[in-house]
Every structure is written in C-alpha cells, then in structure tokens.
Amino acid sequence: MYDILTGPADFTPYQNKYAVLGEEALGARDGLLINLFDVPKTWHTSPEGKFEIEALSEDRFGSGPGHHECQSVMMKKLALVLFIAALAYGYVQEQGIFPPWSPASVGSNTALQDAIATRQSNVQVKGEGIVTKVLKDDLDGSRHQRFILKLGSGQTLLVAHNIDLAPRIDTLRSGDSVEFYGEYEWNPKGGVIHWTHHDPQGRHPGGWLRHRGKTYQ
Question: What is the distance between the alpha carbons of residues 169 and 49, in angstroms, rounded to a whole number?
C-alpha cells in the first residue's frame, strides 16, 4: 500500500502532496494504522492520522482549512487598519493640522522667485523663511500681524497676516521658521505676502501660515 502511493511516476502533484504527508504521518504515529488511500482523495485519514495530516499540510504546503482561516483573519485586520487610517486622515484635515492640497501651490517656489525678479504682483506663491524681526501689529483698519521673513536666497519679505480672518501666531519669535502660502505684492523693499487666510466669500484662493506644526488660516 505504501509503495502504491509513493512509487508511481505518473502521480499528479496533488496526489504526490498527500502521499508525502501520508509518509510523514505514518512515521509520527509510530507505525499505528493510517488509511493512506483516503489521503489523496478527501484530505482525511482514519481518526488516528487526521490531525497529523492537516498539521503537516498547513506547515509544508501553506494550504488547507487552517491556511484559509489565517488569510481571512489577515484580510479583516487589513480592513480595520485602512478604516482607522481613513478616520485619522479626516480628523487631520478637519483640525487644519496640514493645509489642504491646492493646485495653485504647484511650482509656487519658482513662482515666488520669478515674481521677485520681474517685479510682479498679485501672484499666488508658497515658500518658507526665517523670522528676522517681529513688528507691531497694524491696527489701522483690518488688523494684521506683521513680521519680516528671510528666504533661503537671502531675499527678505514682509508678511502681513490678517488676524480679523485668521488666528494670530501668539508664539512667534525671531529665529522661528514659518511656511506660507499667499499672494505676493512687489515693492522696492522686497515685497509683501498677504492673503495668508481663508476667503469668507470663497472668491480668492485661501492662504495659510504654518508655524511649529500648526496651520493658521
């Protein structure tokens, strides 16, 4: 009987798989009777060998009932992770921790350098600089928080941040790094960045400032 299962050269891989398992199960049972003829056909053996066959199959070939149950558990875990990630992303966007992506910001660093070089105004730009001086708030008309930023190129800009429409950066100090997205206006002193806030009317691209990981818009 043993030779019949393991000997023929024309056995299919499916049959050979169970013949090998039958051989190992036979050794594991120390010679106790196992119905090897049932192995290639139904996955089952006599009661003495059933559990050895299933365990050997899962360990060696990665298939069988235990393997499919493992796959099901893994898929459920993956679905849970994706669900939690989606909730986290929604929370981050709602809290304004990161500003929403805007097509207008693509290539905006180049746009800023071009606007400075060609003395353009009314240009949407994005950039980052170091605060060199914090000025007094401008309280004439709409209130603006003002400070001077130095870009990596050495160029300095005045930032005029409307604090009637956006939160004030109360913790701002000289030496701090600030990212910005707003509208550039050229002047002989280097230019001004304003519109660093949302537009209540929704007619102008919304701007923002980012300081120490928090976005002000």
Answer: 73
pLDDT tens string, the chain, 217 residues long: the values are 444 444 445 444 444 555 555 555 555 544 444 454 444 444 444 444 444 444 444 554 455 555 556 667 778 888 888 888 877 766 655 555 544 434 333 334 688 989 999 999 999 999 999 999 999 999 999 999 999 999 998 999 999 999 999 999 999 999 999 999 999 999 999 999 999 999 998 889 999 999 999 999 9
Please tell me the pTM assigned to this model: 0.51
Let me know the angle formed at the C-alpha of 59 by 54 and 64, rounded to the nearest 5 degrees. 45
Task: In the chain, list all ranges with CATH 2.40.50.140.
Answer: 103-216
CATH of region 103-216: 2.40.50.140
